[in-house]
């Protein structure tokens, strides 16, 4: 068996390599180029012979990862980064069988960190188990280099997209996939997006972006969404941009373009010591409702059925943000939840009333669930309810407690089982295969059902949700109590009610 493999593209012969598992890997394929804070442009050709087929390309410029979580998940603490980071990787079982379903994987990292070969998300084991699927994983720009409002420095046309470069990078990678994936035996008419955290947030935006229409078929969105905190208001982005220029002593666009990336990262780090007003609460670097790429009324598209997919899977982990509370006692947890959800006008009395609704949880777990619901989970439930009126939707909650630590399933836990990486000791032996088979079924057909599962029906509001655990089970009305309790505090609630 040859260790090397080649694919013929229109502009040259692209060399790949065979991994230890036997999967073919094509690394560091440039799909776009971009100047700082400008929209990406397609790469029509490149010197294939100058590429090292054994090496991944540079990651986006970003701060180093948290050592504790990197060690726990087996991730690198040092890796090459560069502003010229718009490359993608492809994993494929063979180059003989045509029309493979395509999984387009989008990593997470709060739009601050992440890259396309993180060890916890390497898809080699998944592709080996399901050679009928190939995987494409692109990089996209993050942090202040992926989203920065430049309006206080310039009104030049080429910088008008600077707020939403991550989304534009992903659209360009999808266009590259449409043009070239058939050379790798992929089917451009059967592309499924899968993303976790910021990757899922990006997918939720792509689901309703006109420029993304026709570039993919279906999607799996896990644990972050464009609803509520997942979109930054335009005036908030203006405040953030001005603060960056203040921190770096910049007064002109030319000075900003000349700043070393390290200085920008220092300013980015300092931003978290400030509170930004604007017209709505949000996370720092989520896509911006700029009226160009992201419309202020984007959720209305879900309510109206203007959705860029035929089928949708949506879900997450039962203990999404529980890691924020690991060192907090019960009283500290209550105060943290109230403080962090001030935009929803949450009081201690609200928290206690919510705790009373969940006698099946410990008191601290119920308190943590308040933050998980308001900061993340119910945003996805709004999208699920809206889409279910128009297309098949399948909802899930990953419930398996950490077999070693006993924690509820944390943010991103499902990915390790889907990709067969960093599985904790003591995990149910069959779970990895069940997750792989379920995701592969949906990627191929838009329906996650297969012989190894209980029948998984389409979602209806307050209807069945698949609880993924040592034993999979359907729970009817999983979101009914929480949605009724907190739903009216979201701006999307009225839109959803109007769309009935």
The string of secondary-structure elements, in order, is: EEEEEHEEHEHEHEHHHHEHHHEHHEEHH
| CATH H-level superfamily title of the domain at 4-309 | Alpha/Beta hydrolase fold, catalytic domain
Poorly predicted regions = none
Category by helix and strand content: alpha/beta
Strand order of the largest sheet: 1-2-3-6-8-7-9-10-11-12-13-14
What profile does the largest beta sheet have?
A: 12 strands, mixed
What is the terminal-to-terminal distance? 59 Å
Overall form: globular
Number of strands: 14
| CATH fold type of the domain at 4-309 | Rossmann fold
Assess the beta-strand content as a share of residues.
Answer: 15-25%
Instruction: Write the CATH architecture name of the domain at 4-309.
Output: 3-Layer(aba) Sandwich
**Mean pLDDT level:** 95
CATH class of the domain at 4-309: Alpha Beta
Give the secondary structure arrangement, pairings included.
Blueprint: E1 4-9, E2 12-18, E3 24-30, E4 32-33, E5 41-42, H1 67-73, E6 87-92, E7 100-106, H2 124-129, E8 133-138, H3 165-180, E9 186-196, H4 198-206, E10 218-222, H5 234-248, H6 253-258, H7 261-271, H8 298-304, E11 311-317, H9 330-340, H10 348-356, H11 363-388, E12 393-398, H12 413-419, H13 431-445, E13 464-468, E14 473-476, H14 480-486, H15 492-498
Parallel strand pairs: 7-8, 7-9, 9-10, 10-11, 11-12, 12-13
Antiparallel strand pairs: 1-2, 2-3, 3-6, 4-5, 6-8, 13-14
